[in-house]
Design a protein that fits this description.
The protein is mostly helical and 236 residues long. Helix content is 54%, strand content 7%. Helix 2 packs across helix 9 and helix 7 packs antiparallel against helix 9. The longest helix is centred in the C-terminal third of the chain and has 30 residues.
Length: 236
């Protein structure tokens, strides 16, 4: 029995390790340290997504009004500051980029980002958005250490600045951006936080419900145990 428990534990550890390695592609990922309870961070991430990402990347499974409700944004404020193309609050967060033309421009159509944090992991997104460097051989003049031969431009370049890479693969600190490195990290963390929220809007509710269910089962087990003893005391 002891060996069985060891085998199960080893299998679980191996599974987690393989999953983490697969999501990162064997590349070191920095910790995003997201906080889904931080509404201001989520609002800032939502704003960054609207301003820099929505032109190419949709959130086709997420509605504006659900986002407003979860992030504590009044509908009027949301319409004025987060909706620029005339949609209704009940609409999904989509854009008008034609897929066929986009595939020609970028090599492939830009992916929907609704489930990106669940597919890649928040740490992957956080590291990826901080890993662009100049590469004159690429169509948009940039490459990425996390996603080699990336097909998208560095849309946050005006905030971060530009980096270069040496022959050993070391990326230099970004220069010429409107933000310091620390400020840029905060922007990227907020955006990552928002994308993690979008991937599972009910995540906090699910975790809270899970704790309550476990507490209920524990109490029920105690009651059932003593009830069983009461029923069987005259039989033994």
């Amino acid at each position: 029995m002891k060996n069985l428990f060891k085998a199960i534990a080893f299998g679980l550890v191996t599974l987690v390790s393989v999953s983490a390695l697969a999501s990162s592609g064997g590349i070191h990922l920095d910790k995003a340290n997201n906080d889904l309870t931080d509404k201001e961070s989520l609002k800032n991430g939502f704003k960054t997504y609207i301003n820099y990402c929505l032109g190419c990347h949709q959130l086709q499974y997420q509605r504006y009004n659900r986002t407003f409700k979860d992030l504590g944004i009044d509908n009027a404020d949301g319409i004025e500051n987060y909706m620029y193309t005339g949609e209704k609050p009940g609409d999904h967060i989509t854009n008008t980029m034609p897929k066929k033309e986009a595939a020609k421009w970028f090599g492939t159509a830009p992916p929907d980002l609704t489930l990106e944090a669940r597919l890649r992991s928040p740490d992957w997104i956080y590291t990826y958005l901080r890993s662009f460097y100049m590469d004159s051989e690429r169509p948009f003049g940039v490459n990425n250490t996390v996603f080699k031969d990336v097909g998208m431009p560095h849309v946050l370049q005006d905030l971060q600045g530009v980096s270069s890479i040496d022959e050993h693969g070391n990326v230099s600190p970004a220069m010429g951006g409107n933000l310091s490195a620390e400020e840029y990290d905060v922007v990227v963390r907020d955006l990552t936080n928002f994308l993690e929220y979008v991937g599972e809007p009910s995540k906090l509710e699910r975790k809270s419900m899970g704790v309550k269910v476990l507490i209920f089962l524990f109490i029920f087990f105690i009651v059932a145990y003593f009830l069983k003893k009461e029923y069987w005391k005259d039989i033994h």
